[in-house]
Amino acid sequence: MNIRTSLVGIAMLALVAGVVQASSTEPSMQGIEFVQGEVSVTTHRDHDDLLSAGLGLAGLKGALSPFADPQHPTVDELRRRAIQTSWKGIADLGPLGGYGTVYGAVPDVPGREYQAFAHIPGAHAPHRVLVQVPDNFDKAHRCLVVTASSGSRGIYGAIALAGAWGLPRGCAVAYTDKGTGSGYFDFSDNSGVALDGERAKRGTAMLEFEPSATTGEGIAIKHAHSGDNPEADWGRHVLQAAQFGLAMLDRAFPDQAPFTPQNTKIIATGLSNGGGAVLQAAGLDDQHMLAGVIALEPNIHTPGHGRALYDYMSEAAIWLPCALVDERFATTPFARDAHSAQHAAWVTRCASLHAQGLLKTTSLDAQAKEAYEHLRGTGWTDQAMATAASSTALDLWRVIGAAYASAYLRRGADNMPCGYRYGALVDGKPGVADDATRASWWADASGIPPGNGVGLFGGTDDSADPQLAGITCLRRLWTGDDADARALHASVQALAAHLPRQDLPLWVLQGADDGLLPTAFTSEPYVTWLLAEGRQPLYWKVPHAQHFDAFLALPGFGDKHLPLLPYGYAALNRLWAHLYQGQPWPNRLPTPAGTPRGAGALQPAMLGL
């Protein structure tokens, strides 16, 4: 059932709220003037729900939920698939992973969803906000979980963390896509994504992302092409989502209104980019909205401590392929090809770095060792490099670099740095997407191409190492001193973390084996900084956990690691006990000593919880 309520600005929202419950809801309602356009209100019961769209755990694990008509999927079909792909992208749902038996659960949680586009002052593009209000909302322990999508994912991108923990407990959950998401705009037919996830032409509906250029070619992506450097506003996105959540609780339960931070505990949690977003929010929370923060594997930048993502990402793109040729990585998953041989392209990279004078030695073994020692000298650990073999084999460094450089330089789709561009991929070549491919983007895409029929083109030359030209250009944006390099550094400086208030319960958790956002560059320097500034964060550097729980289902990879999600759930449980049951918040808490899963199924004792 889908009910749309047209709301033009705060005046209309307050007016509608007043029909339900007079002046008692107005204080909260007056705080969401950032909502523009409509608020969509949908109910999800009877073979549908908030947590799995009716699929349950077995359905989430199964094949992608189908579209009856792939060219014209219904709103319900799009939502169901968006939820399913978000689960598959974050959680280990494999047969050995233990989700639903060792940790976690996916019960049926009926309720309502409230969704809208929200705006940060001065931003060109909106961020999507959504609030899930369960029918079993615990009015005796009023709780709002606020979260931000991981990576560049769409609005449901943190459901496996925030939704899975909060909804069964009776908390409402507020989400933001933090200015990223998969609302791709296709210049070939001048279409984007409307609030309900369906494709719509420019000018016929408010779109999730609409480029400022009225004409162009290829595909425009909100994270890369909005012109906003959205990462600098991730904390504000989270705080707006919390405000939106309180206002929607007013609407959902007018007899209980107003919902405020004084009578409703707001718990912020997120992972990866979402973890960085909630830490940014903690530093900007001047109104003391947040009651506690749990951040998993956060992308957080602490100036003067650690390294910025763009720095080590652009370095990894150049150096890791050669370093991973080293014999010490011979049995590392992804570090060798299907025939257990060194990747030919990585061998070529060693030769390219030697030709450029970056490596002095002449034999392949010596060059690989030299590249390895270079990375060791800039802070990479052996374990971070080993786990990063997956990101290197999947070409994530180049993919991330192209998108983030464009975002930091506030470029459009037609002038991305270093010659890169996005376009429809048809039979391996640039083309025009068909209707079915376009229709699936909002539900299926990760927010940064390539994938789902969108390719990353350009940034190459005709050499034996064709991608090196583009990634070297990306690296120069960090190491150089021209106007673009200075502009990029200014954008990165805008990402700087701010100190949270002294009494805020805050817990950072990260896998010791994280190879995408190594702890030495992210969580460790952030926590060290907090301690030096008189804060008392909890920190778990979890042995054998790495960045991508979803990768644990891959053969040979999960054997060596543990999932991070169960530790996030445990931290949230501890925060709940502190906020609602009066348990003391510890100054320190020993990190559990887990053991790798091995070739068999995950067992409870392996987690060490």
Description of the structure:
The chain is α/β, with parallel strands linked by helices and 609 residues long. It is built from 19 helices and 17 strands. The strands form 4 sheets. A 10-stranded mixed beta sheet has the order 1-2-3-4-6-5-11-12-16-17, with helices on both faces. The two termini are 41 Å apart.
Helix content: 25-40%
Largest beta-sheet details: 10 strands, mixed
Instruction: Tell me the number of strands.
Output: 17
**Residue fraction in strands:** 5-15%
Question: Mean pLDDT, nearest integer?
Answer: 94
Strand order of the largest sheet: 1-2-3-4-6-5-11-12-16-17
Structural class: alpha/beta
Spans of at least 5 consecutive residues whose pLDDT stays below 50 are 1-30
Shape annotation: globular
Looking at the chains present, what oligomeric state does this protein adopt? single chain
Measured distance between first and last alpha carbons: 41 Å
**What is the C-alpha radius of gyration, as a whole number of Å?**
23 Å
Alpha plus pi helix count:
19
